[in-house]
Structures are given as structure tokens and as C-alpha cells.
Amino acid sequence: MIRSVVARRKRRKRTPYPSDLTDAQWELIAPMVPAALPGGRPAIHDRRRIVEAILYVNRTGCSWRQLPHDFPPWQTVFGYFQRWNESGVTDRIHDALRAKLRDRSGRDPMASAGMVDAQAVKGADTVGTETRGWDGGKRVHGRKRHVVTDSLGLLVVVLVTAASVQDRDGGRLALSRAKTVMPSMVWADGGYAGRLVAWVAEHCRMTLDIVRKPKGKLGFSVLPHRWLIERTLAWIVRCRRLDHDYERLPAHSEAMIKWAMIGLMTRRLAPARGRHPWQSTRAA
């Protein structure tokens, strides 16, 4: 109790960053963040500051080593980021927020329909040659994100591979991951047509519906259902850490995408009201 009061006083002394959580947003996440184990050394750093540091890296795109000094040490933050991803904490936070947002939207917590798509992004020099490749269609050398969303555009599954992996092959792996939590109906574009449709029906017990561009239509066209997942991919790259792939491990890339969605969903569930504490009281 005393430690939490001290941590709260320390937070008041610093100027918040736009990526910081409000108290209401932290209350959504706090129950799923593991506390320090009993019997060990007392925790030095507030768990809320750890989460806010991860969101800061995600939103601003800075490297771990360039975290501002008013956050915990970068080694500590990265250590929690890695351990929470490996132990499933990141998934639990993400999935719980998605269920709450679906419930608030009047939907069942378990999705009944969704979409699959892929996004190729350039890989930074921190991405090893063994996990990067060349996407000839997009002319991108880097990695590819195979994403499955629900009908609201909320993330269900993300799989990161080398960009050289075909959409169909990545889609097969992503839908295999999604079959226990995902819908019976999945929409996809023409890149997923062919044998994958029958494979998904047999192995995943899903109907893969191919949404094609109208005949004779040239250039960009908004397709039914498909625009929702395109919007999700746009949400993801708004976080500067995700406009390229900077992670050495594909698993860390997947975790960063989940943290981007965690930040988005907390803002949806508990939007900041009125003036932020870092904004001036004078009119702009």
C-alpha cells in the first residue's frame, strides 16, 4: 500500500507523455498485469510505468536504448516486454480488452465472422537475413504480417513471417491458429483463392469466402467486408515502431502489433475526457 502511494506521488512529479495511460485506462489493464512474486526482492519499478514505457516505444518508434530517463531502465522494460510475451500475459491483456470492446458494441465476446489479409513491410537492419525475404508483388524486402480480425476489425491472430512467404501459405498458418477462437466465416481477397478454400473447410471447419473486385473495375475499389481489415492494417502502421519491422525476432514483432491494439482498445474503452494534463490551458 505504501509503495503504491509512493509510486503515485512519483508519477505526479513528471509531465505525462501523450502515450501514457489515464487512471481509467490503467484500471482496465492492471488486473491482468502480474504482481511481484511473494518472498522475493521487493519490486523497484511501478508496473504501470513499465506498461507505459512499452506503449511509448510502440507509439514513437524509438529504440529501447533511447527510452527517456523518467521511465524505468530500458533493460528492465525490455525484460518485462519479453517475459510477458513468452508467458502469455500480453495475449491475456489483448484478448480480454477485445472481449470487453465487443461486449460494449453489443457483440458476443466470441467472434462469428472475420477477415484475413497480409501486409508486407520493409525490414530494418536489425532484422536478420534468416527471417526476412523479398515480396515480388509488393516489391518489399522485409517481413510480412498475416492478420486475422473479427468483423469489427479487432485483431484475433497475427503471424509474422519473411515477406517471401505467399499470402496463401501464411493464411493457412494464421487460420490454423485462429480455429479455436475464430469464426465459422472468413472473408479474404483473391490472393487466397484456390486450394486454400477447400483446405480451410477441411482442417479449420471454416468457410473461406473470396471477395473479388467487380468485373471491369479499374484501380482502387472498396470491397464489402474487406475494407475493415484494411483499416486495421492502417491502425497498426500509425504506430511508428510498426511502419517498418525493427524487431530481431518475429515473435517480438507479433507482440508489438498486439501492444498497438492494446493501446487502441484502451482508448476506445476509456477515452480521455476534456483537457489532457500535458496540454496548455490557453486556446491553441
From TrEMBL:
Keywords: Plasmid. GO terms for molecular function: DNA binding; transposase activity. One of its GO terms (biological process) is DNA transposition. Residues 112-261 form the Transposase IS4-like domain. Residues 21-94 form the Insertion element IS402-like domain. It holds the Pfam family DDE_Tnp_1. The keyword Lipoprotein does not apply. Signal peptide: none annotated. The keyword rRNA-binding does not apply. NCBIfam families: transpos_IS5_3. This is Putative transposase. It comes from Rhodococcus opacus (strain B4).
